[in-house]
Amino acid sequence: MPKIQPAQDESLLGTVFSNLIRARNSVTRRTAAAVDTTCQYITSPEYRRNTHDNLKRFHNERPLWTMFLAIQLALAAVPILLFLGYVASVVLVGLGGALVFSLFWASIGLFFLACILLGTGSLGAFLFTSFIVFQRAVQLLNAMTSTLSQGAQSSQKQEEPEQPLPKAEKILRIVNVKQEDGQNGTHEEDSNSDKEK
Q1: CB within 8 A of 14, min separation 6: which ones?
Q2: Which residues cross the membrane (predicted)?
Q3: Which residues contact 62 (CB under 8 A, 6 or more apart)?
Q4: How far apart are CA 66 and CA 31, in angstroms?
Q5: Which alpha helices (H) appear in 41-62, and where do they start and end?
Q6: Rounded to whole angstroms, how far apart are CA atoms 27 and 66?
Q7: What's the whole-model pTM score?
Q8: Which residues contact 40 (CB under 8 A, 6 or more apart)?
Q9: Other beta carbons less than 10 A from residue 6's beta carbon
Q10: Distance in angstroms (rounded) separating the CA atoms of residues 75 and 81
């Protein structure tokens, strides 16, 4: 299809047609600049260059289609942007509501957790203190019983009467006494016999 050139005459139809072509070129340039600026952050420079060349070729080959698509995009851009804003606000409100709901129930759970931890911490401190007191009491009781038993043993040693000897020791003592008496008796007999002589 041949390119449409602006009319050279100064008629009313030529002026309108010329203004439409300028508007088409302006919309095309602005749309391409907006798309190019947006795509800078998303695509690579080579891909953008190829896309730009394809759009330029499509515009040069089919200018009426390009004008139609540009007008449709320009008119549909506002409702599409409004719809995207609506969806984003619904998502944000939903996420905000979910966040508030979650934080509310998490704070209630945190309150119960703090109460339970306070109770278990107090119980643990009480059990630890009880263990320390019990250990000290056992040590004190052991020290007192050892002191009392040592005092009782020393007093028992002082007051303890002579314990009876076993039979074997008794027999040995008796034999020793008799032997000593026998030796004393023989000395006396010897001295008596000497006197008789």
Answers
A1: 6, 7, 8
A2: 64-88, 108-134
A3: 1
A4: 11
A5: 45-61
A6: 10
A7: 0.37
A8: 48
A9: 12
A10: 11
**Token pair belonging to 158:** 């002082």
Task: Retrieve residue 165's tokens.
Answer: 């000897």
Cβ neighbours for 1, distance < 8 A, ≥ 6 positions apart: 61, 62, 63, 64
Tens of pLDDT along 12-35? Answer: 767 877 888 888 788 778 877 877
Query: What are 47's two structure tokens?
Result: 């891909």
* Reported confidence tier of residue 97, pLDDT bands at 50, 70, 90: very high
Cβ neighbours around 39 below 10 Å, total:
15
Tell the residue number behind the tokens 């119980």, with chain if given.
123
Q: How far is CA 14 from CA 7, 20, 59, 68, in A?
A: 5, 10, 21, 20
Instruction: Read off the amino acid at residue 188.
Output: E
The owner of tokens 């947006």 is 38
Cβ contacts of 24 within 8 Å, gap of 6 or more: 63, 66, 67, 70
Task: Give phi and psi for 166, each to the nearest 5.
Answer: -65, 160
Query: What is the C-alpha separation between 44 and 112, in angstroms, rounded?
Result: 54
**Which amino acid is located at 103 in the chain?**
L
DSSP 145-175: HHHHHHHHHHHHHHHPPPPPPPHHHHHHHHH
Residue type, 41: Y
